[in-house]
Amino acid sequence: MRVIVFEDRFPDDVFVFSETKVELVGVLFCLVRTRERRKNISVKNTFEIIRREKNARKTPSRLTLVQLLSSNLIVLKSTPPQTSARLPHACPFNLTPSVDVVNLTSKSPFFSELFVGIRMNISTSVVLCCQRTRSFLGSSARYFCFSALVIRERSSSEEESNAILISSFLFVASSEASDDVDIFICEVFPTCAYFFPHSFSRAERSKRARKKTKTRTRSREMGRDDDGSNEDATETFFPSVPGLRYIPNVLDAETHDVLVQFIHSQLALGRSGKLEKKATYTPIPPKWDKRLQGREMLQYGTYTHSNRVYTDHEVEVEPMPEILRELVVERLVERGVFGEEKNEEDARKNLSSGGGGGGGGGANDTSRRRFLPDSCTVNVYRKGQWLPPHVDNPNFKRPFCTVSLLADEMCIFGRGIVWHPGLDESSTSGSGSSNSSSNSAVLPEESWYDVTNALDGEECRVVCEKNSAIILDGESGDVYEHAILPVRAEDGRISLTFRKRDWDEDAVNKRTEETEKWRAEYREKRKTAYEATKEEVVRVETERARIARERLERKKAKEARKLETLARKQRELEIVEERRKEKEEKKKTKEPKSKTHKECLPVPEGLLKNDGDDNNDKKKNDVNEDDKNISDVNKMPEVEREYVQKVYDVVAKQWHGTRYRSWPAIEKFVANQPKNGFVADIGCGNGKNMHDVVKGGGTVIGMDFSHGLIEICAEQGFEVQVADALMVPYRSRVFDYALNIAVLHHISSEERRIRMCEETLRVVKVGGVALFCAWAYEQDKGGVSGHDFLAQDVLVPFHKRPIAKGMRPAEQKELDDAMVREGKAPSHGEINQEKHTVVYQRYCHVYKEGELEKLFEKIPGCKVEAAYFDFGNWCVEVRVTRELK
Ligand SMILES: O=C(O)CCC(=O)C(=O)O
Ligand SMILES: [Fe+2]
């Protein structure tokens, strides 16, 4: 069998199932917590949580394709059920999904919210893999893992494909909508590799938008006109830059999100060459990328190259998309930025004012705006990218208008801005030549640009807030330069510049003459200024090099001192160790040999009884909603939770330190199995047995109910999950063989032992084998653990050493007790002063010769093929002879 493991996302090209009618659009990973933690979680911090989970690489939030395909699949379909025959009946992994079809009219608000976007397209389906896992992070927090493949039927129409692509991203994370879930976090990794992090519920989004409008008081520019002369308090005019106008909040939050999604989908199409008019998309020019001057661009209506318009050979681009007209231009018309030419009078005025410039603060001259823009330039900035000072091309009418998305970033205006980000000689966008390193790497940020040299000595900075519009008319568009400072926001910034192409040659010529005059003057001015800057740059660079050199020398000296101290401490430790060994040797010679055996006492009366007593009745009432659906045999008894699961959680690190090799029988068993097998390790512990499978070329996924041990496996890069061996989260009959090592002796009743074995056998293919190993009662046969079991149900002590050197066991116990309160550690730990440890007891049922074989006689559909003793354990190899339910 061929298994491919994709890491966090799928490759860029479309992934085709063997049923070619279907293709993969995206993969969705999500994590749901039940309401137990509701108090701590708000929509606001959900993304913070998923980010933390992801960073900590907690296993439940991350499922790879192998895990996904070995899970139970539920198909949520927006299509009528009769088309279900078109779903993939086979996938490239030779795993046949067991598919249940659930219609999307499902009452659950959780599902309908989730698939709101998908429902819009009748041909899109979601394959949702619901892990049956119940995780055990402490006793209260629970996670449910869902993974989904978002697929669609292959569509012949490009238009429809695009619509699907966009709508597939419209997942909504909802907290309010559902009673069942606290948070629903999803990450969509579509095939175009776009990740949309800002999903909030509709209600939350409009709430945020309303709040933002109310509380916005921040001053947004220096030198702004605050004399109360603005009629509309939400708008700003700028006395130092005639013709410049700023309007905050022209878009609401929801529109903003839709636009961002639209632009990302267009970028995706542009990047993969799927836009019909290829010139619409411009990638970052590599020669500018190094100094962060470049940006990705989308251009509609008119093609420009480095602020140039090719009037003699028009380059074809896509027309302005309807969505921009509807969602943005109409808003701008409402705010009086643009307007339709109503009559000939308008049109004439328009032509006569086409030359622009010439002062006169055109903001109030409404006749100028009697036109609608026919072009839009989308600038997509990543963090650090910037736009150099320039005057917009005179082939466009004035005013033009830029709307900002994603972040609040700074635009500066000046007459001859001396500009330092990137290279010295940048003058207009695109005409910068390349030479040495960037000045912005040398100069402090506050001197990245300089407008004090501007002809009128004035400076004007405008924070272009998210959703705001900035309108350039009159001098602000023709005389003043504008530039965007390096973007600070992690997620970058998007700007949409709406302009109308001026077809009136006279008007364009007049405007060109005007703007060229200024541009030439600014170029001259900059040249002189850069000469002076160069000296300053050299001085700063020398100073920096000196500081760096000195810092390095200090660091080296510190490291040398540290090494010396370490060596001294090491010598001290060796001496202490030698003395300890001497003492031990002496002690050994005195003690009779039999005493070295560790006696394991029978389990105290009552501990094994789970049902019926008062305590348990109370517990039954407390059980989580989810437990109601779990049969009695599957409910974990207190003895297993307190004396097994929690013990492993609290001792996991120390446990891992000494158990790094599998037992000989396991190594041999794995070596005898088919190479390249797909293997499940049920109760994988710290992963020591999984190494054997990987070494032999197989693919293994593991699960264990101890979160502590699973974290250790995850750190080693294994595919693992926290799960209960009585409810294995994998689909039936998908594994070539399975391991179940040292799990059986922790299960406290025969009924549960049988169920546990059935679960392991269920996931193995018919004809495959599972290896079960459990502790033997007869340790005198050659057991190496040195235990002496006084009964078959015993408590086996584990001595936990304090985690830090010099820590007393009592201090360690205090640390553990803090976890006890969270339900993550057992409460029965006892301090052993003599051994300097905290002692925890593990519950074990140890097996007598033949007992395992008898157990499997009670399970139909399997056959014990071999039974043997190894390393103090009884082992059985069990073949699956027919399907187990
Ligand atoms: O990104 C911006 O805000 C300004 C864009 C701009 O000035 C231009 O495209 O000419
Ligand atoms: Fe511009």
Automatic annotation (TrEMBL):
Does the entry feature the keyword Cell membrane, yes or no? no
Q: Name one Pfam family in it.
A: 2OG-FeII_Oxy_2
| Keywords recorded for this protein, A-Z | Methyltransferase, RNA-binding, Transferase, Zinc
Region Disordered, as annotated, extends over 207-234, 342-370, 579-631
* Biological-process GO terms, alphabetical: tRNA methylation; tRNA wobble uridine modification
What positions does the domain Fe2OG dioxygenase occupy?
Answer: 372-502
Molecular-function GO term, any one: S-adenosylmethionine-dependent methyltransferase activity
Q: Where is the composition biased (Gly residues)?
A: 353-363
Question: What segments bear the compositional bias annotation Basic and acidic residues?
Answer: 218-227, 579-600, 608-631
Q: Which domain of life is it from?
A: Eukaryota
Q: Please note every region of biased composition (Basic residues).
A: 207-217
Q: Name one GO cellular component term.
A: cytoplasm
- PANTHER family in the record: ALKYLATED DNA REPAIR PROTEIN ALKB HOMOLOG 8
Family, as annotated:
Belongs to the alkB family.
Q: What is this protein called?
A: Fe2OG dioxygenase domain-containing protein
Origin species: Bathycoccus prasinos
